[in-house]
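In this supplementary section we document a worked example of the pipeline. Step one takes a protein sequence of length 331 as its only input; no multiple sequence alignment statistics are reported here. Step two produces a three-dimensional model, which step three serialises into structure tokens for compact storage. The input and output of this example are shown verbatim.
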Amino acid sequence: MPELTVIMPVYNGELFLEEAIESILGQTFSNFSLIIVNDNSTDTTQKIIDKYISLDKRVQSITNNTNFGPAKSRNLAIDAADTEFIALMDADDRAVATRLEKQLDYLKTHLEVGVCGSWFTFFGKENKVVKHDTDHDRIKVGFLRSCTIGNPTVMLRKSSLGNLRFDESMKIAEDYSLWSQLIANTKFHNIPESLLFYRWHSDNMSQTKIENLETSEFSIKAKQLENLGIHPNNPDLEYYVHAVSLKRNQPTESIIKTIKAANKLKESNKEIQYYNQTIFENHIDKTIVRTIRNAKNNNRDFYKYVKKESGFFSKIPKLDAAIFFLKSFFN
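The serialised model returned by step three reads:
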């Protein structure tokens, strides 16, 4: 019986699919099944899948009769998997040969960890190693800013996932949504080594996609703040979100509201202890200092508020504090 299931959704992936499959079949750990979900492709994707099914008994496929998108395609494969361990893989990336072996070894020796990712390397337009935090508490706080685990680097325990799945109503950031919820139920870890080559596509995102991404990310961040008692109908919700995730070019009146929200969040977490308090406060301090630095405008009243009432003035580096003073009084 396979010990691990690798799932790989694909839509019109003929250009890179073989490379992705070969990187999985050539792993140093071999006791796995590979489920490839063909999301109603119109190119030669199915022919490529059929070729590998005939060559390697570990390869299986699911064929969608309509284009469902990556969220539902992954969910179909997760539900079909009959192993405790599941690894995610994208059809245009390349896995390092030791990826599965190293992640599985880590999960087997760290029973408290339900989700294990790794660093990864962008390739294509540019080569850059993305080094996410490795410690669970830092990953958890980091989710307030952005997704701090690379989706195609994930290996997880199916039992840890429980009833949670990728949100099929989301067309973008569905991975960020899932992981930011699951981290409340299990420990996360990123192996501090690049175990995946993540293909960088040169196609620029359209303005519509950028706007959709911003909307989705805002709702994901807001949902996390419910753990600290900040509900979606809170009239100051945007300021709470901006207290944990930088919003540039805010007017001074908005920054004051963001600072007040930040202080309330610190107090709420001190009582609830959902996040590690030290890491959480450091995260907020950095966010607020950057918010002040990137203010849309400055004036004397704002400077006096930050210095005397905000509680953040002492966190501002001396050079930034001097520039802040000059902008406020002599701009």
